[in-house]
């Protein structure tokens, strides 16, 4: 599990999105970023999370956030996922797990009694200067936007 905490600088990352474009943390300088890591495209929990963010995209952008998802799926799988669910944000295809490892969200997991290594569903709320404002470790896939917006209220209120 990640050791990154609120107040830490976000790791400078670079990865390719579903269009093959390079996306860097530096691209978001001066903007707030919701960087969400999720296990796999087209699975029930990941679909619920992505669709919740999609359905509340306007509220998030109005609050000043850019959104960016990361999983180890290929660009092709990301493109299909985006098209199937009409997602308005980009997804990094981190097939080499460089961004995933930089944020410390790869590690042992348990599912249905089986242990394996995988991505821990985790969201980082990063401020305009690249500092982590909030780490959401217990993501509620169906109500993730509320967790993100609450994160804003906790840090600003």
Describe the structure in your own words.
The protein has helices at 44-55, 57-62, 75-85, 98-102, 144-156; strands at residues 14-16, 22-24, 32-37, 65-71, 90-93, 106-111, 114-119, 122-126, 132-136. It has 157 residues and is an alpha/beta fold. Residues 153-157 have low confidence and may be disordered. It is built from five helices and nine strands; from the N terminus they run E-E-E-H-H-E-H-E-H-E-E-E-E-H. It is globular. Strand 6 and strand 7 form a beta hairpin. It has one domain: Glutaredoxin (3-Layer(aba) Sandwich). The strands form three sheets. Strands 5-4-3-8-9 form a five-stranded mixed sheet. It has a two-stranded antiparallel ribbon with strand order 1-2. It starts with 13 loop residues before the first strand and ends with a helix. Helix content is 30%, strand content 29%.
Instruction: Please tell me the total number of domains.
Output: 1
What is the number of E strands? 9
Main sheet specs: 5 strands, mixed
Number of helices: 5
Overall average pLDDT:
92
Indicate the percent of residues in helices: 25-40%
Distance between the termini: 28 Å
Name the CATH class.
Alpha Beta
Order of helices and strands: EEEHHEHEHEEEEH
Describe the global form: globular
* Named CATH topology: Glutaredoxin
The largest sheet has its strands arranged as: 5-4-3-8-9
User: Which homologous superfamily in CATH is the superfamily?
Assistant: Glutaredoxin
Please tell me how large the radius of gyration is: 14 Å
Strand residue content: 25-35%
Instruction: Using the 3D structure, state the CATH architecture.
Output: 3-Layer(aba) Sandwich
Class from secondary-structure proportions: alpha/beta
Provide the low-confidence segments as ranges.
Answer: 153-157
């Amino acid at each position: 599990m990640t050791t990154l905490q609120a107040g830490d600088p976000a790791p400078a990352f670079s990865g390719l999105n579903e269009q093959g474009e390079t996306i860097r943390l530096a691209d978001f300088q001066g903007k707030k970023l919701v960087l969400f890591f999720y296990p796999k495209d087209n699975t029930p929990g990941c679909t619920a999370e992505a669709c919740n963010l999609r359905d509340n995209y306007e509220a998030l952008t109005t609050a000043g956030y850019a959104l960016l998802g990361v999983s180890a799926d290929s660009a092709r799988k990301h493109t299909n996922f985006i098209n199937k669910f009409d997602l308005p944000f980009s997804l990094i295809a981190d097939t080499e797990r460089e961004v995933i490892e930089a944020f410390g969200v790869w590690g042992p997991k348990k599912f249905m009694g089986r242990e394996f290594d995988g991505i821990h569903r985790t969201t980082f709320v990063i401020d305009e200067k690249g500092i982590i404002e909030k780490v959401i470790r217990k993501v509620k896939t169906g109500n993730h936007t509320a967790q993100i917006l609450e994160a804003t209220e906790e840090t600003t209120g």
